[in-house]
Amino acid sequence: MPNPVEIRTLAGPEELPEWLRAVSTGFYRGPTVTDEEVAVRSGGADPARTQGAYDGARCVGTFRTMPQRMTVPGGAELPVCAVTNVTVTPTHRRRGLLSGMMAHALRAARERGDAMASLIAAEYPIYGRFGFGPASWVTEWEVTVSRTGLDRRYAGPADLGDGGSVEIVDAGDFRRLAPEAHERFRAGAGRQGAIDRTDRWWDLQCGILRFAEPVAPPFHAVYRDADGTVGGAVTYSSDDVWRAKLPEQTVTVADLFATAPAGERALWRFVLSMDWIQRVRTGLRAPDDLLPLLLPDPRAARTLTHADFLWLRPLDVPRMLAARTYPTAGSLVLEVRDKDGYAGGRYRLEAGPEGAACEATHEEPGLSLDVSELGALYLGDESAVRLHALGRVTEERPGAVAEAERLFRTARRPWCPDSF
Ligand SMILES: CC(=O)SCCNC(=O)CCNC(=O)[C@H](O)C(C)(C)COP(=O)(O)OP(=O)(O)OC[C@H]1O[C@@H](n2cnc3c(N)ncnc32)[C@H](O)[C@@H]1OP(=O)(O)O
């Protein structure tokens, strides 16, 4: 008979070293953590929102949440409970430890008033049972620069044609300039899925905080529009591969965002125009990123990865549905099933391009669906028609699926640029 395992919130920061050792074990990073790692990683964890599963004194399960602000279609933002550092030590798996920690976290999130919970799923089959649905997808491309058809005589940052410019800046200037541009980026109407970046996020990105010594620090550049306002930023690194005196370098983009398409085009153009660089890896982008079609030959961008990324778990349906905007006016009654009891019920949505209202109702539903399917539909990526074809939403009134399709889909696909 295995020992009983106790799931509890950490008493305080003094419990973080043992808890971080368990995270390291669960993620196969190593059986121990150094004092330096503990010092850096502890900074991200609020003990009051950190759970451990304890077999005696040994931590064998970990689960942490943090506050997150997420942009929804139309540009408003909602408070979200972001789930991270989920591990169960291999000796203690499939005994319900994740289920126990998830139940505590979702209850706390509902009580706090968070509209949804979010996570990046390590494996697809884990989180659907807890009411999460895949809400945004990502694509990573590798561009073979010589095949793009781009004019290699491009003269560099001053040659963008829109009065804008790209400037390579050091980490200190980037830390000062990029966060404010990112706040404007994520407040855009078509930025659904983008999340806020904390000071700690920027400190890690700029090497002010580090988990380990980098092989080579990354480069940072900003785009300035004709007025000099910073309207985008890129962080990238290069390897140093030569074969028989020929450069074979690959640039990897860690982050690239812009508040407007001109900046986005300029930053891609900059990254693709450097001497020596044979290939550019884009990092995980929205599947409808501008990049491939910026190239005279889009086939120069080969897809390396296409996968689900951000998963959402609705907790407060009226708040979620009223916060976003919709492409057209319309109304829909949804019957939402939630076996865990946080978000289930019947809701009437009055939707429109300028805003929406949503409240509980006793009217007959047009559509019934599981809470995880609502998570998948919410940011506009998933299709109600497709879910209906798969048998995952039920049309209770003729025409309701087509109405949901019209209302929920967005012109541009959602994108969460950050892993967490
Ligand atoms: C947001 C993030 O942090 S993502 C990172 C997730 N962590 C990892 O992938 C690290 C490696 N894996 C692990 O640490 C563990 O296996 C976990 C955390 C995924 C699962 O923890 P467990 O305590 O074993 O899960 P638990 O026992 O509560 O399982 C509940 C149900 O989910 C199922 N399940 C759990 N993990 C998986 C999986 N990886 N694939 C498929 N099903 C799974 C179980 O079979 C069980 O199903 P059942 O109720 O029908 O029997």
Automatic annotation (TrEMBL):
Carries keyword Transferase? yes
Q: Which CDD domains match?
A: NAT_SF
Keywords of this entry: Acyltransferase, Transferase
Q: Where is the N-acetyltransferase domain?
A: 5-159
The record places the active site at: Y127, F420
Binding residue positions for acetyl-CoA:
V86, T87, V88, R94, R95, G96, L97, L98, S99
Q: Which Gene3D superfamilies match?
A: 3.40.630.30, SCP2 sterol-binding domain (3.30.1050.10)
The organism's superkingdom is given as: Bacteria
Q: Which family does it belong to?
A: Belongs to the acetyltransferase Eis family.
Q: What is this protein called?
A: GNAT family N-acetyltransferase
Native organism: Streptomyces axinellae
